[in-house]
Protein backbone atom coordinates (compact mmCIF):
# COMPACT_ATOMS: atom_id res chain seq x y z
CA UNK A 1 0.00 0.00 0.00
CA UNK A 2 1.34 3.40 -0.93
CA UNK A 3 1.99 5.65 2.09
CA UNK A 4 1.72 9.43 2.19
CA UNK A 5 2.94 11.58 5.07
CA UNK A 6 0.62 14.48 5.83
CA UNK A 7 1.15 17.17 8.47
CA UNK A 8 -2.13 17.42 10.34
CA UNK A 9 -2.61 20.90 11.79
CA UNK A 10 -4.98 20.69 14.72
CA UNK A 11 -6.89 23.78 15.74
CA UNK A 12 -9.81 24.79 17.93
CA UNK A 13 -13.53 24.14 18.40
CA UNK A 14 -14.68 21.30 16.16
CA UNK A 15 -11.12 20.62 14.97
CA UNK A 16 -10.73 17.43 17.04
CA UNK A 17 -13.99 16.00 15.69
CA UNK A 18 -13.04 16.85 12.11
CA UNK A 19 -9.72 15.11 12.67
CA UNK A 20 -11.43 11.97 14.02
CA UNK A 21 -13.68 11.94 10.98
CA UNK A 22 -10.73 12.30 8.57
CA UNK A 23 -8.84 9.49 10.34
CA UNK A 24 -11.87 7.18 10.19
CA UNK A 25 -12.32 7.77 6.45
CA UNK A 26 -8.55 7.47 5.84
CA UNK A 27 -8.79 3.92 7.22
CA UNK A 28 -11.13 3.06 4.34
CA UNK A 29 -8.72 4.21 1.61
CA UNK A 30 -6.57 1.99 -0.59
CA UNK A 31 -3.49 3.99 0.49
CA UNK A 32 -2.02 4.71 3.90
CA UNK A 33 -1.86 8.19 5.35
CA UNK A 34 0.73 8.76 8.02
CA UNK A 35 -0.41 11.82 9.98
CA UNK A 36 2.23 14.07 11.55
CA UNK A 37 0.25 16.02 14.18
CA UNK A 38 0.98 19.70 14.91
CA UNK A 39 -1.04 21.47 17.56
CA UNK A 40 -1.98 25.03 16.55
CA UNK A 41 -4.83 25.31 19.04
CA UNK A 42 -5.08 28.59 20.92
CA UNK A 43 -3.91 26.92 24.13
CA UNK A 44 -0.83 25.49 22.42
CA UNK A 45 -0.04 28.84 20.74
CA UNK A 46 -0.42 30.70 24.05
CA UNK A 47 1.80 28.19 25.82
CA UNK A 48 4.45 27.73 23.13
CA UNK A 49 4.56 31.11 21.37
CA UNK A 50 6.28 31.38 18.02
CA UNK A 51 8.13 28.06 18.55
CA UNK A 52 4.81 26.32 17.83
CA UNK A 53 4.72 27.92 14.37
CA UNK A 54 8.42 27.17 13.84
CA UNK A 55 7.81 23.44 14.41
CA UNK A 56 4.71 23.43 12.25
CA UNK A 57 6.31 25.25 9.31
CA UNK A 58 9.45 23.09 9.54
CA UNK A 59 7.27 19.95 9.32
CA UNK A 60 5.31 21.38 6.39
CA UNK A 61 8.52 22.23 4.54
CA UNK A 62 9.89 18.73 5.20
CA UNK A 63 6.74 16.79 4.35
CA UNK A 64 5.26 19.06 1.67
CA UNK A 65 1.64 18.07 2.34
CA UNK A 66 -0.67 19.34 5.08
CA UNK A 67 -4.27 19.19 6.18
CA UNK A 68 -5.39 22.05 8.39
CA UNK A 69 -8.48 22.34 10.58
CA UNK A 70 -10.05 25.63 11.74
CA UNK A 71 -8.11 27.75 14.22
CA UNK A 72 -9.35 30.62 16.37
CA UNK A 73 -8.16 34.04 15.30
CA UNK A 74 -7.41 36.33 18.26
CA UNK A 75 -4.63 38.89 18.15
CA UNK A 76 -2.99 36.83 15.44
CA UNK A 77 -4.38 34.94 12.47
CA UNK A 78 -2.75 31.50 12.18
CA UNK A 79 -3.90 31.39 8.55
CA UNK A 80 -2.12 34.64 7.78
CA UNK A 81 1.04 33.52 9.63
CA UNK A 82 1.15 30.19 7.77
CA UNK A 83 0.49 31.99 4.46
CA UNK A 84 3.42 34.34 5.07
CA UNK A 85 5.84 31.79 6.48
CA UNK A 86 5.10 29.08 3.92
CA UNK A 87 5.02 31.59 1.03
CA UNK A 88 1.64 30.42 -0.18
CA UNK A 89 1.11 32.21 -3.47
CA UNK A 90 -1.83 30.34 -5.01
CA UNK A 91 -5.21 29.40 -3.56
CA UNK A 92 -7.42 26.75 -5.15
CA UNK A 93 -11.12 26.80 -4.32
CA UNK A 94 -13.32 24.14 -5.96
CA UNK A 95 -17.01 25.10 -6.05
CA UNK A 96 -19.56 22.53 -7.24
CA UNK A 97 -23.30 22.13 -6.82
CA UNK A 98 -24.18 19.74 -4.01
CA UNK A 99 -27.50 18.06 -4.81
CA UNK A 100 -29.75 18.25 -1.77
CA UNK A 101 -28.41 21.59 -0.52
CA UNK A 102 -31.01 24.34 -0.80
CA UNK A 103 -30.01 27.30 -2.93
CA UNK A 104 -31.57 30.04 -5.06
CA UNK A 105 -29.79 28.98 -8.25
CA UNK A 106 -31.49 26.60 -10.68
CA UNK A 107 -28.42 25.53 -12.65
CA UNK A 108 -25.52 23.20 -11.94
CA UNK A 109 -22.11 24.73 -11.36
CA UNK A 110 -18.75 22.94 -11.24
CA UNK A 111 -15.79 25.30 -11.28
CA UNK A 112 -12.28 25.50 -9.86
CA UNK A 113 -11.20 28.99 -8.86
CA UNK A 114 -7.43 29.44 -8.95
CA UNK A 115 -6.50 32.69 -7.28
CA UNK A 116 -3.16 34.44 -7.00
CA UNK A 117 -2.90 34.65 -3.20
CA UNK A 118 -0.57 37.64 -3.04
CA UNK A 119 -0.63 41.23 -4.23
CA UNK A 120 -3.64 42.94 -5.71
CA UNK A 121 -5.20 45.58 -3.48
CA UNK A 122 -4.99 43.29 -0.46
CA UNK A 123 -1.29 43.80 0.25
CA UNK A 124 -1.62 47.52 0.77
CA UNK A 125 -4.17 49.02 3.20
CA UNK A 126 -3.54 52.40 1.55
CA UNK A 127 -2.97 55.87 2.88
CA UNK A 128 -5.11 58.95 3.41
CA UNK A 129 -3.50 61.77 1.47
CA UNK A 130 -5.95 64.46 2.65
CA UNK A 131 -9.41 64.68 4.19
CA UNK A 132 -11.07 63.91 0.90
CA UNK A 133 -8.85 61.28 -0.70
CA UNK A 134 -6.88 58.10 -0.08
CA UNK A 135 -4.60 56.01 -2.29
CA UNK A 136 -3.36 52.45 -2.37
CA UNK A 137 -0.83 50.67 -4.52
CA UNK A 138 -2.01 47.61 -6.39
CA UNK A 139 0.91 45.30 -7.07
CA UNK A 140 0.72 42.43 -9.57
CA UNK A 141 3.76 40.18 -9.94
CA UNK A 142 4.55 37.82 -12.76
CA UNK A 143 6.00 34.93 -10.72
CA UNK A 144 2.87 34.13 -8.64
CA UNK A 145 0.71 34.81 -11.72
CA UNK A 146 2.74 32.22 -13.66
CA UNK A 147 2.43 29.74 -10.78
CA UNK A 148 -1.34 30.21 -10.66
CA UNK A 149 -1.59 29.88 -14.43
CA UNK A 150 0.53 26.73 -14.54
CA UNK A 151 -1.53 25.22 -11.74
CA UNK A 152 -4.73 26.09 -13.64
CA UNK A 153 -3.53 24.54 -16.92
CA UNK A 154 -2.32 21.39 -15.17
CA UNK A 155 -5.64 21.07 -13.38
CA UNK A 156 -7.54 21.53 -16.65
CA UNK A 157 -5.36 18.83 -18.17
CA UNK A 158 -6.17 16.50 -15.26
CA UNK A 159 -9.89 17.11 -15.22
CA UNK A 160 -10.28 17.46 -18.97
CA UNK A 161 -11.46 21.05 -18.94
CA UNK A 162 -10.35 24.40 -20.30
CA UNK A 163 -9.00 27.56 -18.69
CA UNK A 164 -10.56 31.01 -18.50
CA UNK A 165 -8.35 33.82 -17.22
CA UNK A 166 -10.22 36.80 -15.91
CA UNK A 167 -9.32 40.33 -14.88
CA UNK A 168 -9.95 43.91 -16.07
CA UNK A 169 -7.00 44.07 -18.47
CA UNK A 170 -8.67 46.68 -20.68
CA UNK A 171 -8.76 49.19 -17.81
CA UNK A 172 -5.98 48.07 -15.47
CA UNK A 173 -3.70 47.83 -18.47
CA UNK A 174 -0.40 47.77 -16.59
CA UNK A 175 -1.31 45.45 -13.71
CA UNK A 176 -3.99 43.12 -15.06
CA UNK A 177 -2.24 43.35 -18.41
CA UNK A 178 0.87 41.89 -16.75
CA UNK A 179 -1.21 39.10 -15.18
CA UNK A 180 -2.73 38.17 -18.57
CA UNK A 181 0.74 38.32 -20.15
CA UNK A 182 1.96 35.75 -17.58
CA UNK A 183 -1.04 33.53 -18.36
CA UNK A 184 -0.27 33.76 -22.09
CA UNK A 185 3.35 32.70 -21.49
CA UNK A 186 2.23 29.60 -19.59
CA UNK A 187 -0.54 28.87 -22.04
CA UNK A 188 2.07 28.43 -24.80
CA UNK A 189 3.32 25.35 -22.90
CA UNK A 190 -0.14 23.72 -22.98
CA UNK A 191 -1.16 23.80 -26.65
CA UNK A 192 -3.81 21.10 -26.11
CA UNK A 193 -5.72 23.04 -23.45
CA UNK A 194 -8.21 25.65 -24.62
CA UNK A 195 -7.98 29.07 -23.07
CA UNK A 196 -9.93 32.27 -23.33
CA UNK A 197 -9.83 35.62 -21.55
CA UNK A 198 -12.95 37.17 -20.10
CA UNK A 199 -13.37 40.54 -18.45
CA UNK A 200 -14.23 39.96 -14.80
CA UNK A 201 -17.61 41.74 -14.85
CA UNK A 202 -18.73 39.81 -17.90
CA UNK A 203 -17.50 36.54 -16.34
CA UNK A 204 -19.69 37.11 -13.27
CA UNK A 205 -22.74 37.48 -15.49
CA UNK A 206 -21.61 34.53 -17.62
CA UNK A 207 -21.33 32.20 -14.65
CA UNK A 208 -24.88 33.00 -13.61
CA UNK A 209 -26.34 32.70 -17.11
CA UNK A 210 -24.27 29.87 -18.60
CA UNK A 211 -22.34 28.11 -15.80
CA UNK A 212 -21.56 25.13 -18.06
CA UNK A 213 -19.16 27.35 -20.03
CA UNK A 214 -16.70 27.43 -17.11
CA UNK A 215 -14.40 24.87 -15.53
CA UNK A 216 -11.00 26.21 -14.41
CA UNK A 217 -10.77 29.96 -13.79
CA UNK A 218 -7.52 31.75 -12.97
CA UNK A 219 -7.53 35.29 -11.63
CA UNK A 220 -5.67 37.86 -9.48
CA UNK A 221 -6.14 38.02 -5.71
CA UNK A 222 -9.19 40.21 -5.08
CA UNK A 223 -11.22 39.01 -8.07
CA UNK A 224 -10.58 35.43 -6.88
CA UNK A 225 -11.82 36.31 -3.43
CA UNK A 226 -15.05 37.87 -4.77
CA UNK A 227 -15.59 35.03 -7.21
CA UNK A 228 -15.06 32.17 -4.71
CA UNK A 229 -17.51 33.56 -2.19
CA UNK A 230 -20.15 34.53 -4.72
CA UNK A 231 -19.93 31.11 -6.39
CA UNK A 232 -20.34 29.50 -2.95
CA UNK A 233 -23.44 31.66 -2.53
CA UNK A 234 -24.80 30.19 -5.78
CA UNK A 235 -24.42 26.63 -4.50
CA UNK A 236 -26.02 27.64 -1.19
CA UNK A 237 -23.05 27.19 1.09
CA UNK A 238 -19.85 28.89 2.11
CA UNK A 239 -19.17 26.45 4.95
CA UNK A 240 -19.35 23.18 3.01
CA UNK A 241 -16.44 23.91 0.69
CA UNK A 242 -12.73 23.32 0.94
CA UNK A 243 -9.72 25.21 -0.24
CA UNK A 244 -6.04 24.53 -0.85
CA UNK A 245 -2.99 26.78 -0.64
CA UNK A 246 0.24 26.18 -2.55
CA UNK A 247 3.78 27.43 -2.42
CA UNK A 248 6.27 26.83 -5.22
CA UNK A 249 9.98 26.12 -5.57
CA UNK A 250 12.46 27.63 -8.01
CA UNK A 251 11.54 25.05 -10.62
CA UNK A 252 7.90 26.13 -10.51
CA UNK A 253 6.85 22.82 -8.90
CA UNK A 254 4.62 22.79 -5.81
CA UNK A 255 6.73 22.88 -2.63
CA UNK A 256 3.98 22.83 0.02
CA UNK A 257 0.31 22.00 -0.49
CA UNK A 258 -2.06 22.68 2.39
CA UNK A 259 -5.70 21.59 2.25
CA UNK A 260 -8.37 22.93 4.58
CA UNK A 261 -12.10 23.12 5.15
CA UNK A 262 -13.43 26.62 4.50
CA UNK A 263 -15.61 26.88 7.63
CA UNK A 264 -14.81 28.19 11.10
CA UNK A 265 -14.29 26.62 14.51
CA UNK A 266 -18.03 26.48 15.39
CA UNK A 267 -17.44 26.72 19.17
CA UNK A 268 -21.20 26.54 19.84
CA UNK A 269 -21.39 22.90 18.73
CA UNK A 270 -17.84 21.73 19.52
CA UNK A 271 -17.57 18.41 21.32
CA UNK A 272 -21.25 17.54 20.76
CA UNK A 273 -20.86 15.11 17.84
CA UNK A 274 -22.98 17.49 15.72
CA UNK A 275 -20.58 19.13 13.30
CA UNK A 276 -20.61 18.47 9.59
CA UNK A 277 -17.25 17.02 8.47
CA UNK A 278 -18.04 17.38 4.73
CA UNK A 279 -15.66 20.29 4.08
CA UNK A 280 -12.80 18.54 5.92
CA UNK A 281 -13.47 15.34 3.95
CA UNK A 282 -13.61 17.31 0.69
CA UNK A 283 -10.23 18.76 1.66
CA UNK A 284 -8.97 15.19 2.12
CA UNK A 285 -10.44 14.27 -1.29
CA UNK A 286 -8.65 17.21 -2.91
CA UNK A 287 -5.39 16.11 -1.24
CA UNK A 288 -5.89 12.59 -2.64
CA UNK A 289 -6.47 14.01 -6.13
CA UNK A 290 -3.36 16.15 -5.79
CA UNK A 291 -1.12 13.16 -4.96
CA UNK A 292 -2.57 11.19 -7.86
CA UNK A 293 -4.99 8.95 -5.95
CA UNK A 294 -7.73 9.85 -8.42
CA UNK A 295 -9.97 6.82 -7.71
CA UNK A 296 -9.94 7.42 -3.98
CA UNK A 297 -10.60 11.12 -4.54
CA UNK A 298 -13.60 10.39 -6.78
CA UNK A 299 -14.98 7.70 -4.44
CA UNK A 300 -14.85 10.01 -1.44
CA UNK A 301 -16.52 12.90 -3.29
CA UNK A 302 -19.21 10.57 -4.63
CA UNK A 303 -19.93 9.15 -1.16
CA UNK A 304 -20.29 12.66 0.30
CA UNK A 305 -22.55 13.91 -2.49
CA UNK A 306 -24.73 10.78 -2.41
CA UNK A 307 -25.26 10.92 1.34
CA UNK A 308 -26.11 14.62 1.33
CA UNK A 309 -28.50 14.18 -1.62
CA UNK A 310 -30.34 11.46 0.32
CA UNK A 311 -30.27 13.61 3.48
CA UNK A 312 -28.21 10.93 5.21
CA UNK A 313 -26.18 13.69 6.78
CA UNK A 314 -25.79 15.97 9.76
CA UNK A 315 -28.50 18.32 11.04
CA UNK A 316 -27.10 21.54 9.59
CA UNK A 317 -27.92 20.27 6.08
CA UNK A 318 -31.26 18.70 6.88
CA UNK A 319 -30.26 15.25 8.14
CA UNK A 320 -30.43 13.58 11.53
CA UNK A 321 -27.02 11.89 11.77
CA UNK A 322 -24.30 12.66 14.29
CA UNK A 323 -20.78 13.47 13.05
CA UNK A 324 -19.61 9.96 13.90
CA UNK A 325 -22.60 8.20 12.28
CA UNK A 326 -22.24 10.27 9.09
CA UNK A 327 -18.51 9.55 9.04
CA UNK A 328 -19.10 5.80 9.46
CA UNK A 329 -21.55 5.87 6.54
CA UNK A 330 -19.04 7.69 4.31
CA UNK A 331 -16.26 5.25 5.23
CA UNK A 332 -18.57 2.32 4.44
CA UNK A 333 -19.48 3.76 1.01
CA UNK A 334 -15.84 4.51 0.17
CA UNK A 335 -14.83 0.96 1.13
CA UNK A 336 -17.65 -0.49 -0.99
CA UNK A 337 -16.77 1.68 -4.00
CA UNK A 338 -13.06 0.89 -3.90
CA UNK A 339 -13.53 -2.81 -3.22
P1 LIG B 1 -14.92 31.30 13.91
O1 LIG B 1 -14.59 32.42 14.83
O2 LIG B 1 -13.92 30.21 13.96
O3 LIG B 1 -15.23 31.73 12.50
P2 LIG B 1 -17.79 31.20 14.40
O4 LIG B 1 -18.70 30.39 15.26
O5 LIG B 1 -17.83 32.67 14.54
O6 LIG B 1 -16.28 30.64 14.53
P3 LIG B 1 -18.32 29.54 12.20
O7 LIG B 1 -17.42 28.54 12.78
O8 LIG B 1 -18.24 29.80 10.75
O9 LIG B 1 -18.16 30.93 12.89
O10 LIG B 1 -19.83 29.13 12.56
C1 LIG B 1 -20.97 29.87 12.16
C2 LIG B 1 -22.20 28.99 12.42
O11 LIG B 1 -22.19 27.88 11.53
C3 LIG B 1 -22.26 28.42 13.84
O12 LIG B 1 -23.60 28.40 14.29
C4 LIG B 1 -21.74 27.02 13.68
O13 LIG B 1 -22.29 26.10 14.62
C5 LIG B 1 -22.15 26.66 12.25
N1 LIG B 1 -21.14 25.76 11.67
C6 LIG B 1 -19.89 26.11 11.29
N2 LIG B 1 -19.21 25.06 10.87
C7 LIG B 1 -20.04 24.00 10.97
C8 LIG B 1 -19.92 22.61 10.68
N3 LIG B 1 -18.78 22.08 10.20
N4 LIG B 1 -20.98 21.82 10.94
C9 LIG B 1 -22.15 22.33 11.40
N5 LIG B 1 -22.33 23.63 11.69
C10 LIG B 1 -21.29 24.46 11.48
Notes on the structure:
With 339 residues, this protein is of the alpha/beta class. It is built from eleven helices and twelve strands. It folds into two domains: 1-89 and 243-339, Isopropylmalate Dehydrogenase, CATH 3.40.718.10; 103-235, Isopropylmalate Dehydrogenase (3-Layer(aba) Sandwich). The strands form two sheets. It has a ten-stranded mixed β-sheet, with helices on both faces. The protein has helices spanning 15-26, 42-48, 50-63, 78-86, 142-159, 175-187, 200-209, 221-235, 278-290, 294-309, 323-338, and strands at residues 3-10, 32-39, 65-68, 90-96, 110-116, 127-130, 133-135, 163-167, 195-199, 216-219, 242-248, 254-261. The protein is globular, with a radius of gyration of 20 Å. Helix 3 packs across helix 4 (78-86). Bound molecules: adenosine-5'-triphosphate. Adenosine-5'-triphosphate (ATP) binds at residues 14, 70, 72, 239, 263-269, 275-276, 316.
Quick recap of the structure?
This protein is α/β, with parallel strands linked by helices and 339 residues long. A ten-stranded mixed beta sheet has the order 2-1-3-12-11-4-5-10-8-9, with helices on both faces. It has a two-stranded antiparallel sheet with strand order 6-7.
